[in-house]
Amino acid sequence: MAVNKRRFIKDKVSCSCSMPGVWKAVAHSEGCVVVYHSPKACAHITEEMERNQYFRMLARREYTDPPYTAPLVTSNIGKKESIFGGSQLLKKSLDYVVATYSPKYIVVTDSCVSGVIGDDSVAVCQEAEQEHGVPILHIDCHGFLDGEYYGGFIATGKLLIDRFMVKTEATEEITVKSEHEVNVPRQNHVKSESTNPVSSKLSSVTPYKVTLIGEKDGPSSLDIQQFCALIEDFGLEIYKSFPGYCSIEDMQKIGESDFTVILGGTQKAYAYLKEIADYMSEKLGIPHFASDYPIGWQGTVRWLDAFNTFLQDFKRDKAVQVTASATVASITDASITSSTVAPTTDIPISSNSTYLQTAPAIDIEAVKANVWHRFEEGYEPYKKTLQAASIILCWGVVSPTTDLSWVLEWLYLGGLSLDKVVILDNVPVDQQKSLRKLLDKYYPETPAVLEQADTELPRDALIITTQELAEPFLRQLMLPCLPPIGMAGLVQMYRKLFMLARRRGERGIVLYGW
Fold first, then answer.
1. H/E element holding 366?
2. Torsion sign across C-alpha atoms 398, 401, 405, 411
């Protein structure tokens, strides 16, 4: 019989509320309280979103404790306020928040209801800030009326930059920091470079301070851990993830960052986060590194090369700036101290610029070797079992913008046997051609067959699929919508496939790759 596929619904147009984005932008900011000028049901939507993410992270063993630090309060607009206005209710809510939580700052945003009513929330926030002496930030978003989720997230990030950040000129001596001094926590599955023989080659790299733009499920998530590992391979210090994981004190120090790195997921999310990075560059003069995600080994190599180029260019520009500043300062000092003695042509250069000029170039091959070493070390527990398994890839219809080349590279890097590829009957002809081209690159001997009426999948095989199959006795690994990040992401996928292989008997199961 033909392969029985489960139906799925795909929405081409996103329609979401901006208020959860506002809360998410400061959800882990110590001392912050978020106020929705809305009916209390609006907070329920945010609560459901957060609960879903919390359980998803628990399932992935990516614990965040506590789940959030910023309380969420609603003004509780009712029928009366919907007719006569709710400004007084918002003022009462702000008074309650100050008295109850003693916040360091408050973030206020409007719902669709308050937007339609036309409440002057800005004036209420300004009045309450003057009365209580607590910074109150009003985010100009109104639920579904404008901006969607990321509209609220980005508007909050920009306002935080305006209110709490200042441009800082770093003048202190540069010092090398060891890995245990880095602020972002590391999980057990990310190995310490100090135990790696390759890491000794990286000890002379300049320790710039880097701020991450975005969150990717927080510091304990595998995605963030992978980014931190790659950045720290260059000897850099990760400062904070902005905006979601920064207190006021943290934000006031972000101006000391040398540059930022954008952590976007979808194309839409990346574009919005780049908007924050561009705004920070404009306001604070902090450049940002923007590149495609490190997907698979080839993608990771491209990312490392691009980051290395960016870092070398940044280091050269930094040296020029510091040298120019030292030159101007020396000429000024010489003209002040003596009007009769001509200034020397040998202008002294600050210790920072000397360090920047003499610092050795980064050994990018050592960095790549370090990344590969971690990959081999992480894959080793699953290697023997997976290389002995029978694997079948079921390829269903995917979005035209989805690149699944990482799947075949993932199987190939692990030395896994791909017995057959079944192209499901809903795959367009152009996608079939693309798949066959990829297959010729990695598995030229593996047959690719179109689904027929008599197609059956063996129960003893591990089924890797882009679309969930309805057959109850199959062991299926559902591929993620977004590819895993870096080599650590591939190791995580090996772990899931290993779990699938360890399931014995006639019991089918579906494991999800996200």
1. helix 364-387
2. negative
pTM of this structure: 0.77
> What is the DSSP secondary-structure string of 120-153?
-HHHHHHHHHHHH---EEEEEEEGGGSSHHHHHH
Determine contact, residues 264/274, Cβ cutoff 8 Å.
yes
Which residue is associated with the tokens 């599955």?
A: 189
At 241, list the tokens. 């993830």
pLDDT digits (tens, 9 = 90+) for 34-64: 999 988 888 877 776 666 666 566 665 655 5
Give the C-alpha separation, 69 to 49, whole Å. Answer: 16
For every residue of 463-503, DSSP letters joined together read EEESS-B--TT-EEEEPPSSPPPHHHHHHHHHHHHHHHHT-
What is the pLDDT of the chain when averaged over all its residues? 78
Domains and CATH numbers, the chain: 19-164 (3.40.50.1980), 167-361 (3.40.50.1980), 388-512 (3.40.50)
| Backbone dihedral region for residue 408 (phi beyond 0: left; psi -120 to 50: alpha; all else: beta) | alpha
Q: Which among 403, 395, 400, 445 is positioned nearest to 423, based on CA atoms? A: 395
Indicate the burial class of 508 (C-beta count within 10 angstroms; 0-12, 13-18, 19 or more): middle
- Note whether 404 and 398 are within 8 A (CB): yes
Cα dist from 393 to 158, 410, 435, 464, whole Å: 44, 12, 11, 5
CA–CA dist 475, 462 (Å, integer): 6
Give the type of residue at 449.
V
> Which one-letter DSSP state was computed for residue 12?
S
Using CA atoms, how far apart are residues 442 and 445, in angstroms rounded to an integer?
9
Where are the alpha helices (H) located in 285-350, listed in sequence order?
296-337
Query: Is residue 340 very low, low, confident or very high in pLDDT (cuts 50, 70, 90)?
Result: very low
Q: Is 212 helix (H, G, I), strand (E, B) or coil?
A: strand
Q: If you ran DSSP here, which 8-state letter would residue 65 be given?
A: S
What element of type H or E holds 418? strand 418-423
Euclidean distance between CA atoms 486 and 222, whole angstroms: 10
Reduce the secondary structure of 90-104 to three states and give it as a string. Answer: HHHHHHHHHHHHCCC
Residues 357-366: contacts with CB under 8 Å, at least 24 apart:
357/319, 357/323, 359/204, 359/205, 359/206, 359/315, 360/204, 361/312, 362/202, 362/205, 362/234, 362/235, 362/308, 362/311, 362/312, 363/201, 363/202, 364/304, 364/305, 364/308, 366/198, 366/201, 366/202
Q: Which of 214, 164, 155, 163 lies closest to 19, judged by CA?
A: 155
Strands, E, within 95-252: which ranges? 105-110, 136-142, 209-213, 237-242
Q: How distant is the alpha carbon of residue 237 from its chain centre?
A: 17
- Identity of the residue numbered 218: G
If we measure between CA atoms, which residue out of 147, 158, 167, 163 comes closest to residue 275?
158
